[in-house]
Write a structure and sequence with these properties.
The chain is of the alpha+beta class. Among the domains are: about 80 residues, Roll (SH3 type barrels); about 160 residues, no CATH class. Helix content is about 55%, strand content about 20%. The strands form 2 sheets. A 6-stranded mixed beta sheet has the order 8-7-6-9-10-11, sandwiched between helices. Strand 1 and strand 2 form a beta hairpin. The longest helix has about 90 residues.
Length: about 350
């Protein structure tokens, strides 16, 4: 491990003055600032230009002494200059967006506004091992994500937990990078049985995550649930977070699962349609039966009325017949009485 102070930035690297007063080019990392004292490793050092090395090695002893003295003279000059002048020093290039992929390997990608990867970092040992075999710099984001998922599958990380958690943090309020990820997943023709969760988080969470040396996705999940770190990305935990906190997490189910769901939906609709048709048929039969019963009832009512009318007619006829009989009897009696009186005379 080495120690040094940051003197200057370029778009490709930071220039550091080490404790041994040597200038070195260091890979850019988030949170770097001018004048900051940092610790770095040999793999963080960018190798010097070969022509510069050969020129320095072929110079005279005076030249070698001069080059060794340059860092000291430059440092003294800078201290004197800063002491007498107030200047504005350049700041580290801003990171446009960060995309973290958490499976078991935890990987963080820095992305420019065009969606190309500018820096890749493993956030745990598995993540570092995974990136060791991948070269993601300058790749379009969707290709980098696809490469990471494929490598994770090939190394057995997706054998047990077939879920992937992707978090995006963008330096502005837009969702350019997030939409890139969503579009890539929507257009993907792969039939891999993986469930992928995607969420956009506030950019400040990325800055906090860097201080904790974890991915922004890990930091976000840790802030919204109280489960242990090993269980943060379990599918049930993420689903509970979506339900309990109404978090803006979209869930992309496997293509095969989606097809099965669509097939089941079609079958359910066909069954519903069949049930509806059978119900309609039953309703028609019921209505027809009710209509027949109604017609029979009407027929019976008509017949009863006809019978009642017939009975009424017969009763009237009987009454008339009885009346005639009574009249005839009365007439006969009167005639008999009259005859009897005539005889008595």
């Amino acid at each position: 491990m080495y120690k040094g102070k940051i003197l200057k930035f370029t778009h490709q690297y930071a220039i550091v003055c080490s404790d041994s007063l040597a200038y070195e080019k260091i890979k850019l990392k988030p949170q770097m600032k001018i004048g900051q004292t940092i610790y770095y490793f040999e793999e963080d050092v960018i190798a010097p230009n070969s022509e510069t090395v050969s020129a320095a090695s072929g110079s005279s002893s005076f030249g070698r002494l001069f080059f060794k003295a340059v860092p000291v003279l430059a440092a003294l000059f800078m201290v004197a200059f800063l002491f007498n002048h107030q200047i504005i020093l350049p700041t580290a290039p801003a990171v446009y967006a960060v995309v973290s992929i958490d499976i078991n390997p935890s990987v963080s990608l820095q992305v420019d506004e065009d969606g190309d990867v500018t820096y890749a970092e493993g956030k745990n040992n598995d993540g570092k091992d995974l990136l060791a075999s991948l070269n993601l710099i300058d790749l379009p984001l969707e290709h980098a994500v696809e490469s990471i998922i494929r490598a994770a599958a090939e190394n057995g990380y997706l054998d047990k937990n077939k879920r992937i958690f992707i978090a995006t943090a963008e330096s502005d309020d837009q969702k350019i990078i997030t939409n890139m990820v969503e579009s890539f997943l929507a257009d993907s023709t792969t039939d891999d049985p993986y469930t992928v969760y995607v969420t956009k988080v506030d950019y400040t969470l990325y800055e906090k995550a860097e201080k904790e040396h974890v991915s922004v996705g890990h930091y976000y999940m840790d802030s919204v649930t109280e489960v242990e770190d090993n269980d943060l990305f379990d599918e049930a935990v993420i689903d509970d977070v979506i339900l309990d906190t109404e978090a803006p997490i979209t869930k992309h189910t496997p293509k095969t699962e989606t097809q099965e769901m669509k097939k089941q939906e079609i079958e359910d609709k066909q069954e519903e349609r069949q049930d509806t048709q059978e119900q309609k048929k039953d309703n028609i039969e019921i209505k027809q039966q009710e209509k027949i019963e109604t017609q029979e009832q009407k027929k019976e009512n008509i017949q009863e009325k006809q019978e009642e009318k017939q009975e009424s007619v017969e009763e009237k006829q009987n009454e008339k017949s009885e009346t005639r009989e009574e009249k005839t009897t009365t007439k006969e009696e009167k005639q008999a009485d009259k005859k009897s009186k005539s005889t008595n005379k």
